[in-house]
Amino acid sequence: MKIDQYISQLLYRYQCVTVPGFGAFLTEIQSAQLHEGSHSFYPPKKMVSFNAYLKNNDGLLANHIAQAEKMSYEVAVSAIENQVLIWKSKLHDFGAITIKNIGEVSLNQEKNLVFVPFDQLNYLTSSFGLTTYVSPAVKREIFKQELEELKESSLI
Fold first, then answer.
1. pLDDT in tens, 21-35
2. How close are the terminal C-alpha atoms of the chain, in Å?
3. Cα–Cα distance, 24 to 17 (Å, whole number)
4. Which letter, b or e, does each residue of 58-68 get, where b requires 16 or more Cβ atoms within 10 Å of its Cβ?
5. Residue 39, phi-psi category: left (phi > 0), alpha (psi -120 to 50), beta (remainder)
6. For residues 132 and 121, what is the distance between their CA atoms, to the nearest angstrom?
7. Where residue 144 falls among pLDDT bands split at 50, 70, 90?
8. Would you say the C-alpha torsion 80, 86, 91, 94 has a positive or negative sign?
9. How far is residue 33's CA from residue 133's CA, in Å, rounded to a whole number?
10. What is the pLDDT of residues 129-143, one digit of tens each?
């Protein structure tokens, strides 16, 4: 069972999704942005981060999996534990894992977990359907110079 999809589903509704024994994925709302250099407008979004120190089971993920898969809570907890063991093994062997639609977790030189989120998915439901918009450059005319030229020409 892939728990990535269940984590992703919960990130739409909650600010924190804890994977027991691994860490927690946290979201923070970022307001709309304007990049002046490229004339791009970005909609508001939920930025995903990771905290490796939040490892206690809060029951959210296990309950969600238990309901979705129609299994007991204990079996869901066991499935999460198995997935965490697989992730830790892959981290040890390859140095990085990819969690679909969420991001990449890797080990740095000090053996600490480093998270790089994917930006393709916006977990802010109020921004559903909004995409990046690139506007043509706005040409600003200098009306003051034109006004002075008109005044000069009318005086002659």
1. 999 999 998 888 888
2. 85
3. 6
4. eebbbebbbee
5. left
6. 12
7. low
8. negative
9. 11
10. 777 878 777 666 666
